Amino acid sequence: MDRFLQYAKIKLNVDRRLILIYCLVYFVWGIAMNWFGTVMEIARFTYWWQVITTYILYMVPISLLLRNRPFHEQYAYGLIAMGFLEFGGYAMQTSYAYPNNLLDSFFGGRTFALGMALFFALYFPAGNWLVGKIYQGIFKKSPECH
């Protein structure tokens, strides 16, 4: 546990501007995905503010911990993180899956949460890449630890 805490302390010690970019990107991403899931009647959060707790308070720190890792590691660890999140969200009914939604009809109802976890695990490598590009574009330097 000590090794993990040391690792986390290093990975989370970043430029505050980088954290701000993560929060802005993930917030917009979360709002857009919740809107898309609602409009397409796939799934949605029960409460709008879950975008903040899920995308900013849960996914941003995990993204920072996984930053600069190979794609396959980010995806694998992200899959574990999203598996717990999806399971918890549907088990506690803080996420709502529309009955007979597009994914259910295509893959079957018993695979819905797994499909969501497999998809959303891509957020970690994709989000880290996107935020890194935005940060470099604005500040003309690599987002390294301080």
TrEMBL record:
The answer to whether keyword Membrane applies is: yes
- Write the record's keywords in alphabetical order, separated by commas: Membrane, Transmembrane, Transmembrane helix
Q: Which domain of life is it from?
A: Bacteria
Name the residues that span the membrane. Answer: 18-36, 48-66, 75-92, 112-131
Q: What is this protein called?
A: Uncharacterized protein
Species source reads: Maribacter litopenaei
* Higher taxonomy: Bacteria, Pseudomonadati, Bacteroidota, Flavobacteriia, Flavobacteriales
